[in-house]
Amino acid sequence: MKLLKLLIVMSFSSLFPFGNGNGQNKDDRISTRPMAVAGSFYPANKDSIVRLLSEYFQPFKHQKKMENIAAVIVPHAGYVFSGAVAASAYSLLEPDRQYEHIFLIGPSHHIYMDGASVNDQFEYYETPMGKVKVDTALCRKLIHDSPFFSCNPDAHREEHCLEVQLPFLQFRLKKVPPIIPIIIATQSLPVIQQIAEVLKPYFNDKNLFIISSDFSHYPSYKDAEKVDRRTGKAIAEGSPYKFIEIIAQNEKDNIPNLVTSACGESAILTLLFISSKMKDIQIHPIMYRNSGDSEYGDHLRVVGYHTFVLTRSGETNTDTTFSLTKMEKEILLQIARRTIQNKLNHSSLPVYDEKGLTDALKMPCGAFVTINEGGKLRGCIGHFGSDQPLYSVVAEMAEAAAFEDPRFYPLQPGELTKIGIEISVLSPMKRIYSIDEFTLGKQGIYMSKGTQSGTFLPQVAEETNWSKEVFLEHCAHDKAGLSWDGWKDADLYTYEAVVFNEEK
Known about the structure:
By secondary structure, this protein is an alpha/beta fold. Helix content is 29%, strand content 21%. The protein has three domains: 13-312, LigB-like (Protocatechuate 4,5-dioxygenase, Chain B), CATH 3.40.830; 326-426, Glycoprotein, Type 4 Pilin, CATH 3.30.700.20; 430-498, Hypothetical protein ph0010, domain 2 (Dna Ligase, domain 1, 2-Layer Sandwich). The protein has helices at 46-57, 79-90, 136-145, 166-172, 189-199, 221-237, 240-252, 265-275, 326-345, 390-403, 459-464, 468-479, and strands spanning 32-33, 69-74, 101-107, 116-118, 124-127, 130-133, 149-150, 179-184, 207-212, 281-290, 304-312, 366-373, 376-383, 419-426, 430-432, 444-449, 452-456, 491-495, 497-501.
């Protein structure tokens, strides 16, 4: 397996009119790590950074918080590019939660070494919002306990991938616990596995792991969406070997200008090796964008940004579904129908007014759009990832269901008044290990095996009256392209849906 090559990522400093952010006092030089990228990746002034973070967190203020969050995967680019995406994950943290430590883990953009560097040289990291404590004693214990950990100051001096996470933590948490700054600077799979083994005892409900990584580097906008969706799906499955397989496939596809699928590949792999055999861990895709979505970016060469949250089950409530008002449901149905109508009429009229959209409609969420005609299915396409605003997903899936479902001919103008539209808003997927954890009729099922996958929405059970086993057999055979009993050794996930339709 060929791991990513070390990269010098795009520098966005020229885009920031924030000034110089050294912030180092003469008496702090020995004990405090000074800011390396303040004034370039993020504002160097406290008031400015608080205003910016407030803006990024605002769309998620009504989002349900996730209890017992074990880890997050977040980007580390300049805030104007990836700040809003990072906020989508940080906003799910409980502000009052008191962790013992935060393990900050990211890739090296400056040096290579056969292992990981733990920064035990400073008592504090400085940010425009104040100092963050480092648990130097625990850092030194990691170095003492394993030959794969050491401290190389060059790995930390100019490195931005951990530094940029600290203001988010200071903004979100009422109390930031001591951090453990770790830079993984190796491409060796066996070494990464050893690093994961050393860190595994610390991956408990007392600590939070933050994995810092951007995703695809430098393909076109459309290619980035394709690559990042595939990579993100592999992460959501929770298998480090599936992640390795997809990274290799992305390289094999020779996508123009694609330098890496994830610059923090080694850090993500470390987390997956730690968590993959823990049955109480669920992985939730939260949001996706790329630098082309920023007013400062273009669509020719972009960098992808994806967020994920890992939670523990049991006493944990990880349900992030939310209710929709009657008006919000009507708006989504109007968006779906107007999108289809515009396509048939070759019209560019807007299908929604962004000013009239509620926070719930702007929430990152997955959805399916189903089209029926004369009581029969006419098209159904959906998107699982919580990486786009709900209203945008509905518009995109409505067009796909009407014109791109390979089982049907594209919708014709004469059919527009004959069809009915149904929308299913999806909760994040939850990995299950026994069909006893699957509630037929209440939950949908998603199964994956190798490169094949398929799903049945919850309402399929009501429409067919199948037993649970028959339901799974048909999903395996009809949807995933597996054998009838292929579900038995496939990876299984459940999800719930808020389902509503046009009432004639």
